[in-house]
Each structure stands twice: as C-alpha cells, then as structure tokens.
Amino acid sequence: MKRILVPTDFSTHADNALRVAARIAKKQNCEILLLHMLEIPNQMNDAITGAAGIPEIMLFIRKANETLENETQKSFLNGIPVTQHVQFEKASEGILSFIKKYEIDLIVMGSHGVTGIEEILMGSNTEKVVRLSEVPVLVIKNNTLEFEKPHFVFASDFTNEIKTPFKKMLEFTTIFDAKLSLVMICTPNSFKTTKIAQKILNDFITEFNIKNYSTHVYNDTNIEKGIINFTNEINADLIGLCTHGRTGLSHFFTGSISEDLVNHAAKPVITFKI
Q1: pLDDT the model gives residue 117
Q2: For 41-72, what is each residue's pLDDT tens digit?
Q3: In angstroms, rounded to a whole number, what is the distance separating the alpha carbons of residues 4 and 27?
Q4: CB-based contact 263:113 (threshold 8 Å)
Q5: pLDDT at 41
Q6: How far apart are CA 59 and CA 207, in angstroms?
Q7: Does residue 248 register a pLDDT over 50?
Q8: Rg from Cα positions in the chain
Q9: pTM (2 d.p.)
Q10: Segment 247-253 long-range contacts (CB within 8 Å, at least 24 positions apart)
Q11: How far, in Å, CA of 249 to CA of 242, rounded?
C-alpha cells in the first residue's frame, strides 16, 4: 500500500477519516492525497470557459487551497507525506477519476449518512464511491478506529465470485494483524441450515492460507441487521464486505447491502469490489 486518498469537505466526518488515514499511513509508510472537490455553483457553469468568470474561479481555488494547507498542518499528520489537490467536478465522479489518475490503493472517507426519503431520492457521495470504486473504500463515522490488531468482521455468502476480492481483504487483514471473524448471515429469504452454511464456509476457506480467524453462522430477519447485530455482539471494530457495483435500474430494484451499512452502521465499513 503506497497511496491513500482522503476526500474532504472540511467537515467533522472528513476530519475523522483523515485521522484514521493518518494512523494507517504511519503504520504502512504511505502517502496521503488530500482531495477537495470544488463544485461550481450553477450560475457560474458558463463562466468556467469565459473571461468574466476567471477572477471568481481563481478565488474559489485560492480559498480551497488555503483551507487544504491548514488541514495538512494538523499535528497528527506530522511525518506523513501529504499532497493537496483541488478538482473541479461532481464529488463522486471526481473521486472515481482521481483514483485511476493517481493509482490510489485505498480510499478513506467520512460519511454523514442519510435516512428516510432523502436516502431513497439521492443517496450520498460516499455511497456512490462505495458502489463504483475499483479499490477498497474505508468509511469512517467517528474517530475510534486505532488499527492496532483490530477485530474484523467479514460478512459474505462465500460464493466463487468473491474469491478475488476475498484475497484483497486477506491482504488488508495481514497488514494490520487483524483478528478475522467470517460470518454467513442466514435470513428467512435466504435460509440455510447451520450444517449447510458451515460446510459452505469450510469449503470456501480451504483454498486460502488464513491465520487468526473464526467462522460463524448467524440468523436474523435480514442481512443488514444480521451483520450489525453480530458485529455488536462480538464487539468487533470493523465490518468488511464485497460490493457488486450495480448501477441504473438494477441498483434501483436490488439495492445494496454495502451502501445500507455505510448509512446505518456505527462501526467503520470497508468494501471490496467484486
């Protein structure tokens, strides 16, 4: 791991993410790229290419860079290489293009979370990045993740399609010497007996060299509640799972467990793209 991207809107949530990214960077000798997406107000869209708008645009850029510079001076970033970037683009689209351009290894983001009708209509930039990012995305709600041998819950159905992201997840747990709890959530809509579920888990992990782990089968009314309740019961530090990256009508009708957890789980969530 060489480069960690931390998108920031200068909020408390973004600051929490930056603090966690700093802990990871110090542990792994990584560089942090601090990115602020500058979305121009609608009335200035036409001014971007016109001379009349240049002074206003330069003012936006200068203010953003000044604020970013202040962010890089925080004491918890001492000794960490930090570069600051300002980009004109919609937040989620800009972040996704940035990770390809700069070969990012991990994104650490804060999440405000949205609920109710707001969640149905718009979702959040964090959700969109979680859904579409090709690199792991770690979503932070507060500043409690220390990454000193964390207890990591990884929830899945353990089918063949997750073998590749599962390898990425194992690399992540090895870096941080994490204790790993592998769990299959069984619900009324996807019921399996404990014996069958445990066999699926056992057959899956035989292909991997895993240390310091345990396997679990957990029953609940739905998968999201099962993951949250299981994580709380064992007092784990972090939730991990895979995301399909569905878009359009497919995403509208099927939804996304990973995005729901980003919104509703109090624990940090890390996602790996299938």
Answers
A1: 36
A2: 544 455 455 554 567 777 878 888 899 999 99
A3: 12
A4: yes
A5: 56
A6: 56
A7: no
A8: 20
A9: 0.87
A10: 247/131, 247/132, 251/131
A11: 20
HSE-CB for 41 with a 13 A CA cutoff: 6
The pLDDT score that the predictor gives to residue 151 is 95
Angle at 118 between CA 139 and CA 46, to 5 degrees: 90
Q: What pLDDT, in 10s, does the model give residues 40-49?
A: 654 445 545 5
Contact present, 51 and 57 (Cβ < 8 Å) = no
Cα-flanking dihedrals φ and ψ of residue 53, to 5°?
-95, -5
**What single-letter amino acid sits at 108?**
V
Q: What is the 3-state secondary structure (H, E, C) of the chain?
A: CCEEEEECCCCHHHHHHHHHHHHHHHHHCCEEEEEEECCCCHHHHHHCCCHHHHHHHHHHHHHHHHHHHHHHCCHHHCCCCEEEEEECCCHHHHHHHHHHHCCCCEEEEECCCCCHHHHHHCCCHHHHHHHHCCCCEEEECCCCCCCCCCEEEEECCCCHHHHHHHHHHHHHHHHCCCEEEEEEEECHHHCCCHHHHHHHHHHHHCCCCCCCEEEEEEECCCHHHHHHHHHHHCCCCEEEEEECCCCHHHHHHHCCHHHHHHHHCCCCEEEEEC
Total length of the chain = 274
Tokens at residue 80, please? Answer: 């960490």
Pairing of strands 31-37, 82-87: parallel
Could you give the C-alpha distances from 79 to 2, 67, 145, 228, in angstroms and in order?
15, 20, 20, 36
Contact at 8 Å (CB) between 125 and 211? no
